[in-house]
Write a structure and sequence with these properties.
The complex is a heterodimer. Chain A contains seven helices and no strands. Chain A is mainly alpha-helical. Chain A folds into two domains: 36 residues, no CATH class; 200 residues, no CATH class. In chain A, 28% of the residues are buried. The mean pLDDT of chain A is 90. Chain B has a domain of 52 residues. Chain B is built from three helices and no strands. Chain B starts with a helix and ends with a helix. In chain B, 4% of the residues are buried. Classes of the chains: A mainly alpha, B mainly alpha. At the A-B interface, helix 6 and helix 7 of A face helix 3 of B.
């Protein structure tokens, strides 16, 4: 069974405990010596790298003499703050931690595929599904928190006699948001890999680099779109009818 | 001619126009065992999806260029709207790609 080197390392270290945990939960991995699949190992790697990055930023914070990491993090924070202030309104600071973490996680996952011997975890359908489901529950929770029971008014529509039809349409539309977030991210990453492979099989030298560059650009844009759409849904859900 | 006669003749003409309906009774010719309909259909599906999406995205980009030319100070908002619009249209094409993969892998 083909595994990436990092996955082999993780399986070598943790196969026993992980298989025991899975069988205790009633799930049976197909290869008990290698229960951790590639995309989970890649996500663990991204998680580790992000934690190291955040700790490094925190440790090197300084008011008089800011270093490079502090500049990077300030740049990211200011960009997200400005964007979410524009879209969500004055209440954006409480969502910033989730938005920045989500953005950095998806960006790192997308870009990891460009490094040799690593693959893109977001190129497997379950990883963008996880991000989309968590995001969906996040914005529904904040919509309920901000509006209370009045959140139902978002689903009713403009006039009372259209309410039954509008309710069904709005519920379906909200559920479709999960699907569209997932498929947009997954298909962009997967198609990037596919297209690179196709051109690699045609012209092995030189030309596929262009498609790696395309994958790089698409990774940035798709991360931005995912976070932007999260902000739009949050702004819509927490909008107070004045 | 009188109105009743006109109505009767028009109805007969319309009924005669329905005759092609009777021609479709013959069974479809048995396809050769190797016609790969999935491949043909998925090719056409992706081509149609990509072509129509290209038209839509062209309109989006053209509108963005024109807005930027009229009001260069509004660059941030126009650029944001353009990127958002392009991503939405692109995601529809990718839905088609996902359906193609679902049918090919079965």
């Amino acid at each position: 069974m083909h595994q990436l080197p990092f996955t082999e390392l993780l399986n070598h270290l943790f196969a026993g405990p992980v298989t025991a945990l899975l069988t205790a939960l009633g799930l049976h991995p197909t290869h008990p010596t290698a229960p951790i699949p590639d995309h989970v190992a890649m996500q663990v790697l991204v998680f580790g790298l992000l934690i190291v990055f955040f700790v490094a930023v925190r440790a090197s914070l300084s008011v008089e003499n800011p270093g490079a990491l502090q500049h990077i993090m300030e740049g990211v924070y200011n960009m997200m703050d400005a964007q979410s202030e524009e879209i969500i309104g004055h209440d954006n600071k409480r969502y910033l931690s989730y938005l920045i973490t989500l953005g950095l996680f998806i960006l790192s996952c997308n870009l990891l595929g460009l490094v040799p011997f690593f693959e893109t975890p977001t190129g497997v359908p379950v990883v963008p599904l996880g991000c989309a489901v968590v995001t969906w529950f996040f914005y529904q929770f904040h919509g309920l928190r901000a509006n209370g029971f009045g959140y139902i008014k978002h689903f009713i529509g403009p006039v009372w006699w259209l309410a039954p039809l509008m309710f069904v349409i709005e519920v379906c539309s909200h559920l479709a948001r999960m699907m569209s977030l997932t498929i947009r991210l997954f298909a962009n990453m997967f198609a990037g890999d596919m297209v690179t492979l196709v051109f690699f099989s045609l012209v092995p030298i030189g030309l596929p680099v262009i498609f790696l560059g395309l994958h790089f650009g698409v990774s940035l844009i798709q991360t931005y779109i995912f976070v932007l759409l999260t902000m739009v849904y949050l702004g819509e859900a927490t909008a107070h009818e004045h | 001619m009188s109105k009743k006669l006109f109505v009767m003749l028009s109805m007969m003409a319309i009924l005669m126009l329905a005759t092609p309906v009777f021609a479709q009774g013959e069974p479809a010719a048995a396809a050769a065992a190797g016609v790969n309909w999935v491949a043909i259909t998925s090719g056409f599906a992706m081509a149609i999806a990509a072509g129509l999406a290209a038209l839509g995205q062209g309109k989006i980009a053209a509108a963005a260029c024109e807005g930027l030319a009229r009001n260069p100070a509004a660059r941030a908002g126009i650029q944001l709207a353009m990127i958002l619009g392009l991503a939405f249209v692109e995601s529809l094409v990718l839905f088609t790609l996902v359906v193609v993969f679902a049918k090919v892998v079965k």
